[in-house]
Amino acid sequence: MIADLKKIWTVFTPSERRKAVWMLVLVILMAMAETLGVISIMPFLSVLGRPAIIHDNPLLHAVYQRFGFHDSRGFILALGLASITLVISSSVFKTVTLHLLNRFVHLERHSISARLLSRYLHQPYEFFLTRNASVLGKNVLSEVDQLLFELIQPLSQLIAQGAVVLAMTLLIFCYDPLTAICIVAVLSLLYGTIYGLVRKRLAHIGKERQTANGQRYLACNEALGGIKDVKITHSAAAYQRQFEGASRLFSRHMAANDTLSQSPLYLVEATGYSMLIVVALTLLLRSNDIAHVLPALGLYGFAAYRMLPAAQIMYRGFAKLRVSSAALQSIHHDLTLAVEQEVTGTSVLAPQREIRLQGVRYAYPSAPEKPVFDGFDLVIPANTSVGIVGRSGAGKSTLMDLLLGLLRPEAGMLSVDGTEIDTGNVAAWQRAIGYVPQHIFLADASVAENIAFGVPRDRIDMQAVEGAARAAQIHEFVVGELPQGYDTAIGDRGIRLSGGQRQRVGIARALYRNAPVLFFDEATSALDAQTEETVNGAILNLSSKKTIIVIAHKKASLRHCQQIFEVSQGHPEFLRTTNATK
Ligand SMILES: Nc1ncnc2c1ncn2[C@@H]1O[C@H](COP(=O)(O)OP(=O)(O)OP(=O)(O)O)[C@@H](O)[C@H]1O
Prior knowledge:
Elements (H helix, E strand, L loop, with lengths): L1 H10 L2 H36 L3 H4 L1 H9 L5 H50 L5 H4 L2 H43 L1 H49 L1 H6 L3 H27 L1 H24 L2 H34 L1 H11 L18 E9 L10 E9 L3 E5 L6 H8 L7 E6 L2 E2 L5 H6 L1 E4 L10 H5 L10 H10 L3 H7 L17 H14 L4 E5 L7 H14 L4 E5 L11 E6 L2 E7 L5
Parallel strand pairs: 3-8, 3-9, 6-7, 7-8
Antiparallel strand pairs: 1-2, 1-4, 4-5, 9-10
Protein backbone atom coordinates (compact mmCIF):
# COMPACT_ATOMS: atom_id res chain seq x y z
CA MET A 1 0.00 0.00 0.00
CA ILE A 2 2.87 2.37 0.82
CA ALA A 3 4.36 1.57 -2.59
CA ASP A 4 1.03 2.44 -4.23
CA LEU A 5 0.84 5.73 -2.35
CA LYS A 6 4.39 6.57 -3.49
CA LYS A 7 3.40 5.78 -7.07
CA ILE A 8 0.43 8.13 -6.87
CA TRP A 9 2.76 10.87 -5.69
CA THR A 10 5.08 10.32 -8.67
CA VAL A 11 2.14 10.41 -11.08
CA PHE A 12 1.70 14.10 -10.15
CA THR A 13 3.90 16.85 -11.58
CA PRO A 14 5.74 19.07 -9.05
CA SER A 15 3.12 21.84 -9.38
CA GLU A 16 0.32 19.30 -8.93
CA ARG A 17 2.04 18.01 -5.82
CA ARG A 18 2.01 21.54 -4.43
CA LYS A 19 -1.71 21.78 -5.25
CA ALA A 20 -2.27 18.41 -3.57
CA VAL A 21 -0.64 19.73 -0.40
CA TRP A 22 -2.98 22.78 -0.50
CA MET A 23 -5.91 20.45 -0.87
CA LEU A 24 -4.72 18.58 2.19
CA VAL A 25 -4.55 21.82 4.17
CA LEU A 26 -8.10 22.73 3.10
CA VAL A 27 -9.28 19.29 4.07
CA ILE A 28 -7.81 19.64 7.55
CA LEU A 29 -9.40 23.08 7.92
CA MET A 30 -12.65 21.47 6.87
CA ALA A 31 -12.30 18.94 9.67
CA MET A 32 -11.60 21.74 12.13
CA ALA A 33 -14.69 23.66 10.98
CA GLU A 34 -16.70 20.52 11.42
CA THR A 35 -15.38 19.99 14.93
CA LEU A 36 -16.24 23.59 15.82
CA GLY A 37 -19.80 22.92 14.71
CA VAL A 38 -19.95 19.93 17.06
CA ILE A 39 -18.39 21.82 19.97
CA SER A 40 -20.86 24.68 19.58
CA ILE A 41 -23.82 22.44 20.32
CA MET A 42 -22.46 21.50 23.79
CA PRO A 43 -22.92 24.81 25.67
CA PHE A 44 -26.34 25.19 24.08
CA LEU A 45 -27.48 21.76 25.30
CA SER A 46 -25.85 22.27 28.73
CA VAL A 47 -27.68 25.54 29.38
CA LEU A 48 -30.90 24.20 27.90
CA GLY A 49 -30.78 21.22 30.28
CA ARG A 50 -29.71 23.20 33.37
CA PRO A 51 -29.84 27.03 33.11
CA ALA A 52 -28.09 27.37 36.49
CA ILE A 53 -24.87 26.23 34.81
CA ILE A 54 -24.52 29.78 33.40
CA HIS A 55 -23.41 30.91 36.86
CA ASP A 56 -21.57 27.68 37.85
CA ASN A 57 -19.35 27.49 34.78
CA PRO A 58 -16.75 30.33 34.73
CA LEU A 59 -16.47 30.39 30.94
CA LEU A 60 -20.22 30.53 30.35
CA HIS A 61 -20.52 33.12 33.07
CA ALA A 62 -17.81 35.32 31.51
CA VAL A 63 -19.55 35.18 28.11
CA TYR A 64 -22.91 35.90 29.77
CA GLN A 65 -21.43 38.96 31.49
CA ARG A 66 -19.35 40.13 28.52
CA PHE A 67 -22.36 40.34 26.19
CA GLY A 68 -24.62 41.82 28.90
CA PHE A 69 -27.36 39.18 29.02
CA HIS A 70 -30.10 39.68 31.62
CA ASP A 71 -31.89 36.31 31.56
CA SER A 72 -31.10 32.73 30.68
CA ARG A 73 -33.77 32.57 27.90
CA GLY A 74 -32.01 35.24 25.87
CA PHE A 75 -28.67 33.52 26.48
CA ILE A 76 -30.01 30.12 25.35
CA LEU A 77 -31.43 31.75 22.24
CA ALA A 78 -28.09 33.40 21.48
CA LEU A 79 -26.20 30.12 22.04
CA GLY A 80 -28.63 28.32 19.71
CA LEU A 81 -28.21 30.97 17.02
CA ALA A 82 -24.41 30.90 17.38
CA SER A 83 -24.43 27.14 17.01
CA ILE A 84 -26.67 27.31 13.91
CA THR A 85 -24.37 29.97 12.39
CA LEU A 86 -21.29 27.83 13.03
CA VAL A 87 -22.88 24.68 11.60
CA ILE A 88 -24.09 26.56 8.50
CA SER A 89 -20.71 28.27 7.97
CA SER A 90 -18.93 24.95 8.32
CA SER A 91 -21.30 23.44 5.71
CA VAL A 92 -20.63 26.33 3.30
CA PHE A 93 -16.89 25.95 3.83
CA LYS A 94 -17.19 22.20 3.26
CA THR A 95 -19.13 22.73 0.03
CA VAL A 96 -16.47 25.12 -1.29
CA THR A 97 -13.67 22.73 -0.30
CA LEU A 98 -15.51 19.86 -1.92
CA HIS A 99 -15.77 21.82 -5.14
CA LEU A 100 -12.04 22.61 -5.04
CA LEU A 101 -11.28 18.94 -4.43
CA ASN A 102 -13.51 17.89 -7.32
CA ARG A 103 -11.91 20.47 -9.59
CA PHE A 104 -8.48 19.20 -8.64
CA VAL A 105 -9.43 15.61 -9.40
CA HIS A 106 -11.11 16.44 -12.74
CA LEU A 107 -8.22 18.61 -13.89
CA GLU A 108 -5.88 15.78 -12.86
CA ARG A 109 -7.80 13.55 -15.24
CA HIS A 110 -7.09 16.03 -18.01
CA SER A 111 -3.45 16.40 -17.00
CA ILE A 112 -2.64 12.70 -16.60
CA SER A 113 -4.41 11.59 -19.78
CA ALA A 114 -2.78 14.41 -21.78
CA ARG A 115 0.66 13.47 -20.42
CA LEU A 116 0.04 9.80 -21.08
CA LEU A 117 -1.01 10.45 -24.68
CA SER A 118 2.03 12.67 -25.13
CA ARG A 119 4.28 9.86 -23.77
CA TYR A 120 2.79 7.43 -26.25
CA LEU A 121 3.06 9.84 -29.17
CA HIS A 122 6.73 10.42 -28.39
CA GLN A 123 7.66 6.77 -28.35
CA PRO A 124 9.73 5.44 -31.24
CA TYR A 125 7.75 3.83 -34.07
CA GLU A 126 8.91 0.37 -32.93
CA PHE A 127 6.96 0.81 -29.67
CA PHE A 128 3.73 0.69 -31.68
CA LEU A 129 4.74 -2.59 -33.31
CA THR A 130 4.46 -4.32 -29.95
CA ARG A 131 1.62 -2.42 -28.24
CA ASN A 132 -2.00 -2.65 -29.31
CA ALA A 133 -3.44 0.76 -30.25
CA SER A 134 -6.82 0.08 -28.63
CA VAL A 135 -5.11 -0.88 -25.37
CA LEU A 136 -3.19 2.40 -25.46
CA GLY A 137 -6.45 4.25 -26.17
CA LYS A 138 -8.09 2.44 -23.27
CA ASN A 139 -5.28 3.53 -20.95
CA VAL A 140 -5.59 7.18 -21.97
CA LEU A 141 -9.38 7.33 -21.81
CA SER A 142 -10.61 4.69 -19.42
CA GLU A 143 -7.80 3.62 -17.09
CA VAL A 144 -7.01 7.24 -16.23
CA ASP A 145 -10.67 7.64 -15.24
CA GLN A 146 -10.36 4.54 -13.09
CA LEU A 147 -7.26 5.98 -11.48
CA LEU A 148 -8.88 9.36 -10.80
CA PHE A 149 -12.44 8.50 -9.84
CA GLU A 150 -11.83 5.11 -8.30
CA LEU A 151 -8.56 5.88 -6.60
CA ILE A 152 -7.40 9.49 -6.25
CA GLN A 153 -10.87 10.86 -5.50
CA PRO A 154 -11.69 8.19 -2.87
CA LEU A 155 -8.18 8.68 -1.51
CA SER A 156 -8.68 12.43 -1.15
CA GLN A 157 -11.97 11.70 0.59
CA LEU A 158 -10.14 9.19 2.77
CA ILE A 159 -7.74 11.90 3.89
CA ALA A 160 -10.57 14.43 4.35
CA GLN A 161 -12.67 12.05 6.37
CA GLY A 162 -9.59 10.77 8.22
CA ALA A 163 -9.10 14.33 9.47
CA VAL A 164 -12.77 14.50 10.50
CA VAL A 165 -12.52 11.20 12.39
CA LEU A 166 -9.31 12.35 14.05
CA ALA A 167 -10.80 15.69 15.10
CA MET A 168 -13.95 14.02 16.44
CA THR A 169 -11.90 11.45 18.32
CA LEU A 170 -9.78 14.19 19.91
CA LEU A 171 -12.94 16.05 20.87
CA ILE A 172 -14.47 13.02 22.54
CA PHE A 173 -11.08 12.18 24.04
CA CYS A 174 -10.97 15.60 25.80
CA TYR A 175 -14.43 14.98 27.16
CA ASP A 176 -14.09 11.30 28.00
CA PRO A 177 -10.81 9.49 27.03
CA LEU A 178 -12.09 5.99 27.76
CA THR A 179 -15.15 6.39 25.54
CA ALA A 180 -12.99 7.82 22.75
CA ILE A 181 -10.59 4.86 22.92
CA CYS A 182 -13.50 2.42 22.94
CA ILE A 183 -15.11 4.03 19.90
CA VAL A 184 -11.86 4.05 17.89
CA ALA A 185 -11.06 0.47 18.94
CA VAL A 186 -14.49 -0.84 17.92
CA LEU A 187 -14.48 1.02 14.60
CA SER A 188 -10.91 -0.06 13.77
CA LEU A 189 -11.67 -3.65 14.72
CA LEU A 190 -14.82 -3.73 12.61
CA TYR A 191 -13.33 -2.14 9.49
CA GLY A 192 -9.96 -3.85 9.95
CA THR A 193 -11.58 -7.29 10.08
CA ILE A 194 -13.76 -6.59 7.04
CA TYR A 195 -10.81 -5.20 5.07
CA GLY A 196 -8.64 -8.18 6.03
CA LEU A 197 -11.35 -10.53 4.75
CA VAL A 198 -11.88 -8.84 1.38
CA ARG A 199 -8.48 -7.39 0.44
CA LYS A 200 -7.34 -10.39 -1.64
CA ARG A 201 -10.64 -10.48 -3.47
CA LEU A 202 -10.39 -6.74 -4.13
CA ALA A 203 -6.90 -7.07 -5.67
CA HIS A 204 -8.11 -9.95 -7.83
CA ILE A 205 -11.11 -7.90 -8.99
CA GLY A 206 -8.77 -5.01 -9.84
CA LYS A 207 -6.60 -7.14 -12.14
CA GLU A 208 -9.51 -8.89 -13.87
CA ARG A 209 -11.37 -5.61 -14.31
CA GLN A 210 -8.39 -4.17 -16.15
CA THR A 211 -8.07 -7.17 -18.49
CA ALA A 212 -11.81 -7.20 -19.19
CA ASN A 213 -11.73 -3.46 -19.91
CA GLY A 214 -8.93 -4.02 -22.45
CA GLN A 215 -10.88 -6.81 -24.14
CA ARG A 216 -13.98 -4.63 -24.28
CA TYR A 217 -12.09 -1.87 -26.08
CA LEU A 218 -10.37 -4.34 -28.39
CA ALA A 219 -13.59 -6.04 -29.52
CA CYS A 220 -15.31 -2.71 -30.06
CA ASN A 221 -12.42 -1.15 -32.00
CA GLU A 222 -11.80 -4.21 -34.15
CA ALA A 223 -15.48 -4.69 -35.03
CA LEU A 224 -16.09 -1.04 -35.89
CA GLY A 225 -12.67 -0.52 -37.51
CA GLY A 226 -13.03 -3.56 -39.77
CA ILE A 227 -16.74 -3.15 -40.41
CA LYS A 228 -16.49 -4.21 -44.06
CA ASP A 229 -14.84 -7.52 -43.17
CA VAL A 230 -17.27 -7.96 -40.28
CA LYS A 231 -20.21 -7.53 -42.64
CA ILE A 232 -18.88 -9.71 -45.39
CA THR A 233 -17.82 -12.52 -43.07
CA HIS A 234 -20.97 -12.15 -40.95
CA SER A 235 -18.79 -12.06 -37.86
CA ALA A 236 -20.84 -9.37 -36.10
CA ALA A 237 -22.33 -11.96 -33.73
CA ALA A 238 -18.86 -13.28 -32.82
CA TYR A 239 -17.61 -9.76 -32.08
CA GLN A 240 -20.80 -8.99 -30.17
CA ARG A 241 -20.23 -12.11 -28.04
CA GLN A 242 -16.59 -11.19 -27.50
CA PHE A 243 -17.59 -7.68 -26.44
CA GLU A 244 -20.48 -8.80 -24.26
CA GLY A 245 -18.37 -11.42 -22.47
CA ALA A 246 -15.74 -8.85 -21.54
CA SER A 247 -18.28 -6.10 -20.86
CA ARG A 248 -20.37 -8.31 -18.56
CA LEU A 249 -17.28 -9.40 -16.64
CA PHE A 250 -16.18 -5.78 -16.36
CA SER A 251 -19.60 -4.72 -15.03
CA ARG A 252 -19.75 -7.65 -12.60
CA HIS A 253 -16.35 -6.71 -11.21
CA MET A 254 -17.36 -3.07 -10.89
CA ALA A 255 -20.52 -4.12 -9.05
CA ALA A 256 -18.57 -6.42 -6.70
CA ASN A 257 -16.08 -3.62 -6.12
CA ASP A 258 -18.88 -1.19 -5.21
CA THR A 259 -20.58 -3.70 -2.93
CA LEU A 260 -17.39 -4.72 -1.14
CA SER A 261 -16.42 -1.12 -0.60
CA GLN A 262 -19.90 0.01 0.57
CA SER A 263 -21.42 -2.94 2.39
CA PRO A 264 -19.84 -2.55 5.86
CA LEU A 265 -21.76 0.72 6.28
CA TYR A 266 -24.98 -0.90 7.48
CA LEU A 267 -23.18 -3.20 9.88
CA VAL A 268 -21.11 -0.36 11.27
CA GLU A 269 -24.15 1.94 11.48
CA ALA A 270 -26.03 -0.67 13.47
CA THR A 271 -23.03 -1.14 15.76
CA GLY A 272 -22.51 2.62 16.08
CA TYR A 273 -26.08 3.38 17.09
CA SER A 274 -26.19 0.41 19.46
CA MET A 275 -23.05 1.81 21.07
CA LEU A 276 -24.74 5.19 21.39
CA ILE A 277 -27.64 3.65 23.32
CA VAL A 278 -25.20 1.73 25.55
CA VAL A 279 -23.27 4.97 26.24
CA ALA A 280 -26.55 6.83 27.02
CA LEU A 281 -27.69 4.12 29.40
CA THR A 282 -24.29 3.98 31.11
CA LEU A 283 -24.24 7.75 31.55
CA LEU A 284 -27.77 7.73 32.90
CA LEU A 285 -26.99 4.93 35.35
CA ARG A 286 -23.88 6.78 36.50
CA SER A 287 -25.43 10.21 37.04
CA ASN A 288 -29.21 9.66 37.25
CA ASP A 289 -29.62 13.27 36.13
CA ILE A 290 -30.88 13.75 32.57
CA ALA A 291 -29.59 17.35 32.58
CA HIS A 292 -26.03 16.04 32.93
CA VAL A 293 -26.49 13.30 30.37
CA LEU A 294 -28.11 15.48 27.69
CA PRO A 295 -25.05 17.51 26.56
CA ALA A 296 -22.76 14.48 26.53
CA LEU A 297 -25.35 12.51 24.60
CA GLY A 298 -25.76 15.39 22.16
CA LEU A 299 -22.03 15.40 21.60
CA TYR A 300 -21.80 11.63 21.08
CA GLY A 301 -24.87 11.62 18.84
CA PHE A 302 -23.54 14.39 16.67
CA ALA A 303 -20.05 12.87 16.63
CA ALA A 304 -21.47 9.49 15.63
CA TYR A 305 -23.59 11.15 12.97
CA ARG A 306 -20.42 12.66 11.49
CA MET A 307 -17.92 9.92 12.34
CA LEU A 308 -19.68 6.83 11.01
CA PRO A 309 -20.05 8.01 7.40
CA ALA A 310 -16.51 9.41 7.62
CA ALA A 311 -15.12 6.07 8.78
CA GLN A 312 -17.07 4.37 6.00
CA ILE A 313 -15.61 6.72 3.37
CA MET A 314 -12.13 5.99 4.75
CA TYR A 315 -12.71 2.28 4.42
CA ARG A 316 -14.00 2.82 0.89
CA GLY A 317 -10.77 4.72 0.08
CA PHE A 318 -8.65 1.76 1.24
CA ALA A 319 -10.80 -0.70 -0.71
CA LYS A 320 -10.61 1.38 -3.90
CA LEU A 321 -6.86 1.69 -3.52
CA ARG A 322 -6.69 -2.07 -3.59
CA VAL A 323 -8.94 -2.46 -6.66
CA SER A 324 -7.30 0.34 -8.65
CA SER A 325 -3.78 -0.79 -7.89
CA ALA A 326 -3.53 -2.56 -11.29
CA ALA A 327 -4.60 0.58 -13.18
CA LEU A 328 -2.14 2.61 -11.13
CA GLN A 329 0.71 0.20 -11.96
CA SER A 330 0.17 0.40 -15.70
CA ILE A 331 -0.36 4.18 -15.83
CA HIS A 332 2.62 4.79 -13.57
CA HIS A 333 4.73 2.50 -15.77
CA ASP A 334 3.67 4.16 -19.02
CA LEU A 335 4.06 7.67 -17.62
CA THR A 336 7.66 6.87 -16.79
CA LEU A 337 8.47 5.49 -20.25
CA ALA A 338 11.55 7.18 -21.62
CA VAL A 339 10.63 9.59 -24.39
CA GLU A 340 12.67 10.70 -27.32
CA GLN A 341 13.70 14.27 -26.94
CA GLU A 342 11.96 16.04 -29.77
CA VAL A 343 14.41 18.18 -31.67
CA THR A 344 12.67 21.41 -32.46
CA GLY A 345 13.58 23.45 -35.47
CA THR A 346 12.69 23.89 -39.09
CA SER A 347 15.88 22.76 -40.82
CA VAL A 348 15.46 20.39 -43.75
CA LEU A 349 18.07 17.80 -44.61
CA ALA A 350 17.55 17.58 -48.38
CA PRO A 351 19.96 15.24 -50.18
CA GLN A 352 22.26 16.86 -52.75
CA ARG A 353 24.33 13.78 -53.60
CA GLU A 354 22.92 10.56 -52.20
CA ILE A 355 20.91 8.62 -49.63
CA ARG A 356 22.84 5.61 -48.41
CA LEU A 357 22.15 2.50 -46.36
CA GLN A 358 25.40 0.93 -45.29
CA GLY A 359 25.89 -2.46 -43.62
CA VAL A 360 22.38 -2.29 -42.17
CA ARG A 361 21.12 -5.00 -39.87
CA TYR A 362 17.52 -4.94 -38.76
CA ALA A 363 15.37 -7.49 -36.93
CA TYR A 364 11.87 -6.78 -35.57
CA PRO A 365 11.65 -6.75 -31.75
CA SER A 366 9.29 -9.75 -31.82
CA ALA A 367 11.76 -11.81 -33.91
CA PRO A 368 15.23 -10.63 -32.85
CA GLU A 369 16.92 -13.80 -34.16
CA LYS A 370 15.49 -13.40 -37.65
CA PRO A 371 16.89 -10.24 -39.18
CA VAL A 372 15.06 -8.98 -42.24
CA PHE A 373 18.33 -7.36 -43.35
CA ASP A 374 21.90 -8.10 -42.37
CA GLY A 375 24.75 -6.21 -44.00
CA PHE A 376 22.40 -4.43 -46.38
CA ASP A 377 23.88 -1.75 -48.68
CA LEU A 378 21.99 0.55 -51.01
CA VAL A 379 22.83 3.88 -52.62
CA ILE A 380 20.10 6.13 -53.99
CA PRO A 381 21.56 9.02 -55.98
CA ALA A 382 19.88 12.36 -55.26
CA ASN A 383 17.43 13.71 -57.82
CA THR A 384 16.79 10.39 -59.47
CA SER A 385 13.84 8.07 -59.34
CA VAL A 386 14.49 4.63 -57.92
CA GLY A 387 12.10 1.70 -57.97
CA ILE A 388 12.26 -1.20 -55.54
CA VAL A 389 10.53 -4.49 -56.28
CA GLY A 390 10.48 -7.79 -54.49
CA ARG A 391 8.17 -10.66 -53.72
CA SER A 392 5.74 -10.38 -50.87
CA GLY A 393 7.54 -10.52 -47.52
CA ALA A 394 10.94 -9.74 -49.06
CA GLY A 395 11.32 -6.68 -46.86
CA LYS A 396 10.26 -3.75 -49.08
CA SER A 397 8.14 -2.01 -46.42
CA THR A 398 10.84 -2.62 -43.80
CA LEU A 399 13.35 -1.04 -46.16
CA MET A 400 11.02 1.92 -46.66
CA ASP A 401 10.61 2.35 -42.89
CA LEU A 402 14.40 2.27 -42.45
CA LEU A 403 14.81 4.91 -45.15
CA LEU A 404 12.05 7.01 -43.58
CA GLY A 405 13.94 6.94 -40.28
CA LEU A 406 11.00 5.22 -38.53
CA LEU A 407 13.02 2.10 -37.77
CA ARG A 408 16.58 2.40 -36.50
CA PRO A 409 19.22 -0.01 -37.83
CA GLU A 410 20.72 -2.21 -35.12
CA ALA A 411 24.02 -2.09 -36.99
CA GLY A 412 25.16 -0.03 -39.93
CA MET A 413 23.59 3.31 -40.77
CA LEU A 414 21.37 5.46 -42.89
CA SER A 415 23.13 8.57 -44.17
CA VAL A 416 22.27 11.55 -46.31
CA ASP A 417 25.21 13.11 -48.14
CA GLY A 418 27.52 11.40 -45.66
CA THR A 419 25.63 12.65 -42.57
CA GLU A 420 24.47 9.78 -40.40
CA ILE A 421 20.78 10.01 -39.52
CA ASP A 422 20.35 9.75 -35.77
CA THR A 423 17.87 11.01 -33.16
CA GLY A 424 19.35 14.51 -33.43
CA ASN A 425 18.67 15.02 -37.13
CA VAL A 426 15.97 12.50 -38.02
CA ALA A 427 13.32 15.25 -37.81
CA ALA A 428 15.25 17.39 -40.33
CA TRP A 429 15.48 14.35 -42.61
CA GLN A 430 11.76 13.62 -42.24
CA ARG A 431 10.96 17.25 -43.05
CA ALA A 432 12.57 16.60 -46.43
CA ILE A 433 10.18 13.69 -47.08
CA GLY A 434 6.76 13.37 -48.67
CA TYR A 435 5.37 9.88 -48.08
CA VAL A 436 2.50 8.00 -49.65
CA PRO A 437 1.89 4.75 -47.72
CA GLN A 438 0.21 1.59 -48.95
CA HIS A 439 -2.84 2.26 -46.79
CA ILE A 440 -3.58 5.94 -46.65
CA PHE A 441 -4.99 7.27 -43.43
CA LEU A 442 -7.64 9.88 -44.07
CA ALA A 443 -9.06 11.97 -41.26
CA ASP A 444 -12.78 12.73 -40.92
CA ALA A 445 -12.25 16.24 -42.24
CA SER A 446 -12.47 18.17 -45.51
CA VAL A 447 -10.51 17.29 -48.67
CA ALA A 448 -8.34 20.40 -48.20
CA GLU A 449 -7.55 19.48 -44.58
CA ASN A 450 -6.65 15.96 -45.66
CA ILE A 451 -4.32 17.19 -48.37
CA ALA A 452 -2.68 19.75 -46.06
CA PHE A 453 -2.61 17.11 -43.29
CA GLY A 454 -1.55 18.46 -39.89
CA VAL A 455 -1.75 22.12 -40.98
CA PRO A 456 -4.29 24.17 -38.96
CA ARG A 457 -7.36 25.01 -41.05
CA ASP A 458 -6.72 28.76 -41.19
CA ARG A 459 -3.12 28.27 -42.32
CA ILE A 460 -3.80 26.00 -45.29
CA ASP A 461 -2.30 27.27 -48.55
CA MET A 462 -5.20 26.64 -50.94
CA GLN A 463 -3.08 27.32 -54.00
CA ALA A 464 -0.63 24.62 -52.96
CA VAL A 465 -3.56 22.28 -52.19
CA GLU A 466 -4.96 22.78 -55.68
CA GLY A 467 -1.54 22.38 -57.33
CA ALA A 468 -0.93 19.11 -55.48
CA ALA A 469 -4.43 17.87 -56.28
CA ARG A 470 -3.95 18.64 -59.99
CA ALA A 471 -0.67 16.70 -60.05
CA ALA A 472 -2.33 13.79 -58.26
CA GLN A 473 -5.18 13.83 -60.84
CA ILE A 474 -7.88 14.46 -58.23
CA HIS A 475 -8.62 18.15 -58.80
CA GLU A 476 -11.26 17.59 -61.50
CA PHE A 477 -13.09 15.13 -59.31
CA VAL A 478 -13.00 17.43 -56.26
CA VAL A 479 -14.34 20.53 -58.02
CA GLY A 480 -16.62 18.68 -60.44
CA GLU A 481 -18.24 16.05 -58.25
CA LEU A 482 -17.93 16.90 -54.59
CA PRO A 483 -20.78 19.13 -53.33
CA GLN A 484 -18.55 21.63 -51.48
CA GLY A 485 -15.38 21.10 -53.50
CA TYR A 486 -12.29 21.19 -51.29
CA ASP A 487 -14.48 21.87 -48.23
CA THR A 488 -16.38 18.59 -48.58
CA ALA A 489 -16.03 16.30 -45.56
CA ILE A 490 -14.90 12.87 -46.70
CA GLY A 491 -16.07 10.84 -43.69
CA ASP A 492 -14.32 8.61 -41.20
CA ARG A 493 -11.13 7.30 -42.86
CA GLY A 494 -12.34 8.73 -46.18
CA ILE A 495 -15.25 6.30 -46.37
CA ARG A 496 -17.06 8.52 -48.92
CA LEU A 497 -14.23 8.13 -51.46
CA SER A 498 -13.25 5.22 -53.67
CA GLY A 499 -9.95 3.42 -53.04
CA GLY A 500 -8.30 5.15 -56.02
CA GLN A 501 -9.62 8.56 -54.94
CA ARG A 502 -8.26 8.00 -51.44
CA GLN A 503 -4.88 7.08 -52.89
CA ARG A 504 -4.84 10.23 -55.00
CA VAL A 505 -5.70 12.37 -51.96
CA GLY A 506 -2.73 10.64 -50.26
CA ILE A 507 -0.47 11.44 -53.21
CA ALA A 508 -1.64 15.07 -53.21
CA ARG A 509 -0.81 15.17 -49.47
CA ALA A 510 2.77 14.09 -50.18
CA LEU A 511 3.06 16.69 -52.95
CA TYR A 512 1.50 19.55 -50.92
CA ARG A 513 4.62 20.11 -48.86
CA ASN A 514 6.77 20.24 -51.97
CA ALA A 515 9.25 17.92 -50.25
CA PRO A 516 12.54 17.23 -52.08
CA VAL A 517 12.26 13.46 -51.42
CA LEU A 518 9.13 11.46 -52.22
CA PHE A 519 8.44 7.92 -51.07
CA PHE A 520 5.66 5.88 -52.65
CA ASP A 521 4.80 2.54 -51.05
CA GLU A 522 2.53 0.72 -53.49
CA ALA A 523 0.90 4.10 -53.80
CA THR A 524 -0.75 3.65 -57.16
CA SER A 525 -1.89 0.05 -56.75
CA ALA A 526 -5.57 1.03 -56.46
CA LEU A 527 -5.54 3.10 -59.66
CA ASP A 528 -6.62 1.87 -63.08
CA ALA A 529 -3.80 1.56 -65.60
CA GLN A 530 -4.57 4.85 -67.34
CA THR A 531 -4.85 6.93 -64.14
CA GLU A 532 -1.71 5.24 -62.75
CA GLU A 533 0.16 6.18 -65.89
CA THR A 534 -1.04 9.79 -65.73
CA VAL A 535 -0.30 10.10 -61.99
CA ASN A 536 3.19 8.62 -62.35
CA GLY A 537 3.95 10.84 -65.35
CA ALA A 538 2.65 13.94 -63.52
CA ILE A 539 4.71 13.23 -60.42
CA LEU A 540 7.87 12.74 -62.40
CA ASN A 541 7.23 15.87 -64.49
CA LEU A 542 6.39 17.94 -61.45
CA SER A 543 9.42 16.76 -59.57
CA SER A 544 12.28 17.53 -61.86
CA LYS A 545 14.44 18.26 -58.82
CA LYS A 546 13.24 15.52 -56.51
CA THR A 547 14.50 12.18 -55.32
CA ILE A 548 11.74 9.64 -55.77
CA ILE A 549 11.66 6.16 -54.27
CA VAL A 550 8.86 3.88 -55.36
CA ILE A 551 8.05 0.45 -53.94
CA ALA A 552 5.92 -1.86 -56.04
CA HIS A 553 5.11 -5.51 -56.44
CA LYS A 554 4.99 -5.28 -60.22
CA LYS A 555 7.99 -4.20 -62.22
CA ALA A 556 5.54 -2.71 -64.73
CA SER A 557 4.58 -0.03 -62.19
CA LEU A 558 8.19 1.11 -62.12
CA ARG A 559 8.72 1.81 -65.74
CA HIS A 560 9.06 5.54 -65.07
CA CYS A 561 11.92 4.95 -62.62
CA GLN A 562 15.49 5.55 -63.67
CA GLN A 563 16.93 2.70 -61.58
CA ILE A 564 15.28 -0.47 -60.36
CA PHE A 565 16.44 -2.74 -57.52
CA GLU A 566 14.98 -6.04 -56.52
CA VAL A 567 15.08 -6.93 -52.82
CA SER A 568 15.49 -10.62 -52.22
CA GLN A 569 16.86 -12.59 -49.29
CA GLY A 570 17.76 -9.44 -47.43
CA HIS A 571 19.85 -7.89 -50.20
CA PRO A 572 19.19 -5.50 -53.07
CA GLU A 573 19.96 -6.69 -56.53
CA PHE A 574 20.46 -3.99 -59.11
CA LEU A 575 18.13 -4.85 -61.95
CA ARG A 576 18.54 -2.14 -64.51
CA THR A 577 18.77 1.49 -65.37
CA THR A 578 15.82 2.40 -67.51
CA ASN A 579 15.60 4.98 -70.20
CA ALA A 580 13.08 6.90 -68.18
CA THR A 581 13.90 10.57 -68.05
CA LYS A 582 12.72 13.12 -65.61
N1 LIG B 1 6.02 -5.92 -36.99
C1 LIG B 1 6.66 -7.02 -37.41
N2 LIG B 1 7.12 -7.88 -36.50
C2 LIG B 1 7.79 -8.98 -36.88
N3 LIG B 1 8.04 -9.29 -38.17
C3 LIG B 1 7.59 -8.47 -39.11
C4 LIG B 1 6.88 -7.28 -38.79
N4 LIG B 1 6.57 -6.65 -39.95
C5 LIG B 1 7.07 -7.42 -40.95
N5 LIG B 1 7.69 -8.50 -40.45
C6 LIG B 1 8.39 -9.56 -41.21
O1 LIG B 1 9.45 -8.94 -41.92
C7 LIG B 1 9.56 -9.48 -43.21
C8 LIG B 1 9.50 -8.35 -44.26
O2 LIG B 1 8.22 -7.77 -44.20
P1 LIG B 1 7.83 -6.51 -45.11
O3 LIG B 1 6.50 -6.05 -44.68
O4 LIG B 1 8.92 -5.56 -45.10
O5 LIG B 1 7.74 -7.21 -46.54
P2 LIG B 1 7.21 -6.59 -47.91
O6 LIG B 1 8.23 -6.93 -48.93
O7 LIG B 1 6.87 -5.17 -47.75
O8 LIG B 1 5.88 -7.45 -48.11
P3 LIG B 1 4.56 -7.06 -48.90
O9 LIG B 1 4.95 -6.82 -50.31
O10 LIG B 1 3.73 -8.30 -48.76
O11 LIG B 1 3.98 -5.88 -48.24
C9 LIG B 1 8.44 -10.51 -43.37
O12 LIG B 1 9.00 -11.77 -43.15
C10 LIG B 1 7.48 -10.17 -42.23
O13 LIG B 1 6.88 -11.33 -41.73
